[in-house]
Amino acid sequence: MQHPTLNNTLMGFRKNKKQLLRVLDDPDIPLHNNAASSDIREFVTRRKISGGTRNDVGRKARDTMVG
């Protein structure tokens, strides 16, 4: 049985194998992107709680109050 989506994904893995496994040769490369996610987490949480801003004036007011 053919699974085109799976086959395409596997071909992509094979094509990028050297880059995907580079972490095995260089222990300084993180295995995750948690640092990037953590950097924006607080901002996203504040945006969700406040409901976001509707215009530039609201954005400036929010930035002034919460930093």
How would you sum up this structure, described in words?
This protein is an all-alpha fold and 67 residues long. The protein has one domain (4-66). Helix content is 66%, strand content 0%. The longest helix is centred in the middle third of the chain and has 17 residues, at 34-50. The chain is elongated, with a radius of gyration of 21 Å. 0% of the residues are buried.
Mean pLDDT: 86
Largest sheet: none
Total helical segments: 4
SS class: mainly alpha
Question: What is the number of E strands?
Answer: 0
Task: Give a quick rundown of the structure.
This protein is mainly alpha-helical and 67 residues long.
What tags apply to this protein structure?
single chain; 67 residues; mainly alpha; 4 helices; elongated
How are the SSEs placed, and which strands pair?
Blueprint: H1 4-15, H2 17-20, H3 34-50, H4 56-66
